[in-house]
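S., here's the first fold you wanted:
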Amino acid sequence: MHIEKNVCDNVLWILLGVPGKTKDNLKDRLDLEEWGIREALHPQERGSNKAFLRPACFAMNRDNKDVFLQTFKRMKLVDDYASNISRRVHLKERSMWGLKSHDNHILMQQLLPIAARRALPKNVVEALIELTNFFRQLCSKVNKPSDLEAIQDRIALTLCHLEKIFPMSFFDIMEHLPIHLAEEALIAGPVQFRWMYPIERFLLTLKEYVRNHAHPEASIAKGYLMEECMTFCGRYLDEVETKSKRPERNYNGGTDFGRPLGKKVKVSLGDITRAQAHSYVLANSEAIALFRK
């Protein structure tokens, strides 16, 4: 969990060129010059003793950063899938911060390739997609030993592809630890039974119970007892909205059709599109599974 968060943070910082966070700076370019590799990225001296750093293939200009960040800004995710990631996007500064561990989890496995396809070159996008596919397969609910052995062989090639793109300073210990994750899953079992998401979420709940910092244990015990009492009483209050009976944020009103998120948009389907949609429903609806058999 923490490996995925650190890898995602490092990727976002170097793609967006966040000052003080990115691994692509003058010191890293001087290292490339000292090692005699990637001559195109060596710093060039210009007037008044200033060094010019030529943009790398993974560096985005202002327009590409806007496209990259607007993808996250306009996303609307369902309840309990992730937090409101659009609040973490700051278009004026062209950056993202304040992401939680689970936000990085969703970005790395689902959202990052979607945003990168429109803002980065093909070779960079392909390497990032390989990295996201590794974490997605590793965190799958069902994994066969053959699947884990396959991604264990593949992650080494993925890191080699990334080494051809990003500077050497990008690869700290966190970027090399994925080499061992597939082998760990083969020995210890699925990842979702060993990661820290439920434990850290419950620890946050306990920390919120603390009111008297001189006696945190007593505050946690008292707060937990009050929470249990309120939950017990709330189950007998049918006409009162309680914490356990609060409607969902995107409540659809109890209808089978649901309701849109945001402004309604009418779309007219052509004959071919309508036939394709109709066939898809017939082939995938559980209501007519018996008739298909």
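And the second, which I think is the more interesting of the pair:
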Amino acid sequence: MPCWTVHLEGGPRRVNHAAVAVGHRVFSFGGYCSGEDYETLRQIDVHVFNAGTEKWWTPAVSGHIPGARDGHSACVLDRTMYVFGGFEQLADCFSNDIHKLDTKLLSWTLVKAKGAPARWRDFHSATVIGSKMFVFGGRADRSGPFHSNNEIYCNRIRAFDLLTETWLDAPQCSAPPEGRRSHSAFAYQGELYVFGGYNARLNRHFQDLWRYTPETGHWQRVEVQGKGPCARRRQCCCIVGDKILLFGGTSPSPDQQDLQDEFYLMDHSDLYILDFSPSLKTLCKLAVLHYSLDQSCLPHDIRWELSAMTTNSTISRPLLSSHG
């Protein structure tokens, strides 16, 4: 598979930001530059990447600009970008407000949400299905918006109707996944999927995949064929047709599995594909691996593909990290 590096001038240098794609443009907001002056480098600018020209630009925006934050979520409906939650470091508190950006007019609006709002949180997920935004997971505090080191990890799903701008109690008729943060969430055929994440109170990284059906409120753990990713957080997922591409993430170093220590983490550079509609060829390859069948009689390209499916990445390295 070919790969390349694009050298981009004017792009944002940050972590824990949020971004959405609108047509051929990517809109990025928030985050901060790790290891440097937090106050001056906290980002409230909107950065836009044009995939056609492969260039970044920082447009002038108007309206009620959100306060600087990180660990927030962003999703998009009808060319409007919605930002929810996050941690406002200067105020030392979690947020549960919603801002929306008109990506055509480049104007921010503070949403005057109706209904009981979702809990203040960061490192959650927000996924649009139809005209509703489904919020799951994240880190919060039992005492309220301020961080008192009495963390909780939300596992009650909340829905926000983007058309009526109203918070709703999403149905939940079965046991949900464990609360977590820094997980991945995506929508496929009207259902919500959640993978991985981390819970500091349990000191546990997850590698489970769950499906939530909005109409019934039913959660179900999904059993997937093939060798999936190890337990991790901070990975990214995107959907291409009937396939989910998962890249990267952070997990405990194999040498420190028993300790699960925050200071013995490693970043991954591996790529996994979850195929919701596998071809006969893919199913046959999975059968060869599952039953340990003889591969010597197979064509060279098939043997190479089987090797690629079962060979771990060797690019990853241990990384000292404790945030996100």
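Why I say that: Residues 85 and 104 are 23 Å apart (CA to CA). Residues 18-319 form a domain with the Neuraminidase fold (CATH 2.120.10.80).

Talk tomorrow,
H.
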